Amino acid sequence: MLALLWLMLLAYTGWVSPAGLAQATTSEDKSIFILAGQSNMSGRGGVVNDTWDGVVPPECQSNPSILRLSAGLKWVEAHEPLHADIDVKKICGVGPGMAFANSVLDKDSSLGVVGLVPCAIGGTNISEWARGSYLYSQLVRRAGVALQGGGTIRAILWYQGESDTVSQEDAKSYKGRLERFFEDLRTDLQSPMLPVIQVALASGQGPFIETVRIAQLTIDLPNVRCVDAKGLQLQPDGLHLSTPAQVHLGEMFADAFLQTLPIPLQSNAPKRFHNFVCEFFFHRPPN
Ligand SMILES: *[C@@H]1O[C@H](CO)[C@@H](O)[C@H](O)[C@H]1NC(C)=O
Ligand SMILES: *[C@@H]1O[C@H](CO)[C@@H](O)[C@H](O)[C@H]1NC(C)=O
Ligand SMILES: *[C@@H]1O[C@H](CO)[C@@H](O)[C@H](O)[C@H]1NC(C)=O
Question: What is the domain count for the chain?
């Protein structure tokens, strides 16, 4: 009875089409995730003196069910460093992406094949991601290509803001710029309720960290969730998350994402039902 009510709610709100409910997940039905932001999303875990130590923890191992869209726009089996051919001006190490993918698959095998679309570039500020910019266009283009092989974009994982903590003016503009960025992406990816999981900064490159952090934590858009980087371990460089911290962050991303999911309908339904209803009643979209 509860299950039936659940299905009707989902169909009514457009989260899942009734036909979609009947389909089994196939490898063409990828669960696609966009990874964007700056260096901590790109990944510097294990990079010391411009050399990556090559350490890949068990949580970040490759798996035939985890693909990545290469810089050459091909799906390939994903492995660390995930952004090596994307963030090419820097030495990349471990980021949160592989730990996220492994964790999400462990917890919900119905997601099928995970397709990661790395787009993060170190040192970038929010203005460089605005609609019309190179980075924005690349993201939308890569997302479009990712969809061509079949599948659904399930979420954007976003970790950025350190570069916007330097001037008070930029920090103050951050919230508006960030909301605009998410709204533009949802429009251009034709997914008005696309889940966004973002990270609240623990520190940054300038003094206005708290302003940016508050902007991130109080963002006023439906279906945007925030995980907190406060307390995560930095590497000896004092600048970037260590490999163990990235593993932890990837798992936090996974848990936050799973809470946005209305499926699968069976096992975890009561918990998600609750979350979903909260989301639905408190952040109902204008239409
Ligand atoms: C990195 O470089 C510094 C300065 O040259 C040196 O003291 C340190 O031992 C190096 N660390 C590693 C792990 O190579
Ligand atoms: C963002 O970065 C670009 C390129 O480095 C720079 O020209 C611009 O002034 C920066 N904008 C802000 C708001 O920090
Ligand atoms: C990476 O993330 C950590 C934790 O939020 C933060 O302290 C650090 O400033 C970030 N580094 C850069 C270069 O953005």
Answer: 1
